Amino acid sequence: MFKRKRASGIVRKALFSYVMIGFLTMLSACGQQTSTTNQQPSYTKTVAMQASWAIMYNDVKSAKAASDAVLLGTIESVKRVTGGGSAVGVVATDFVFKIEQTIVDAHHLLYGSTIIIHQTGGITNSTKFEVSDDPLFLVNEHALLFLRIYQPGYAFVVGGPSGRFIVENNLVKPRYNPEGMTSMRNQSVPVKDFIAQIQSA
User: Fold this and answer.
1) Which of 42, 65, 14, 13 is nearest to 139 (CA)?
2) Domain count for the chain
3) Which residues of the chain have pLDDT under 70?
4) Residue 153 lies in domain
């Protein structure tokens, strides 16, 4: 059974340890979007953010051990964008992720056919806020994700970009090579082979 105490601790870790954000550019009087859209919002300006990841995972075994779930699926839509001004906080986006295959559900925390993926950064008031080495998810992006579930129905990717993989033409590759899985740097592998590797780790 999911415990609220565990969730609050993970949220604190996610906010204060998981990633420390330093704005290179500040935008005043940013608003907040709350409507669901199946299209990526448009933008005319980009604000780059830098992150210091508390932990990066260079092998499947350690990433799996740190995850509550490992899922294959597609970013279906943007549920909401929050934050934006100094009084509101860091911009973040909740994406609706359509689950195609559950590879790992270690603690039986999943329910339903979708899960919300929380990511630092977002598009608000025609400005894109984005962490340099962890680009915003794109609507219709096919992905394999190592996830920590911090409250029922909500998750974030473990290890920032090191727990995030792009799936194209039945091949999977790290979203960010320089600090991704050592065994997969600069190469793609068949999805079924990578799934088998995760399940046996």
Assistant:
1) 42
2) 1
3) 1-39, 85-88, 176-186
4) 4-200
C-beta separation of 134 from 120 below 8 A: yes
Please say whether the beta carbons of 100 and 74 come within 8 A: yes
Residue from 122, 116, 171 nearest 143 by CA: 171
User: Do the beta carbons of residue 156 and residue 118 sit within 8 Å?
Assistant: yes
Distances (CA, A) of 101 to 40, 185, 194: 24, 24, 13
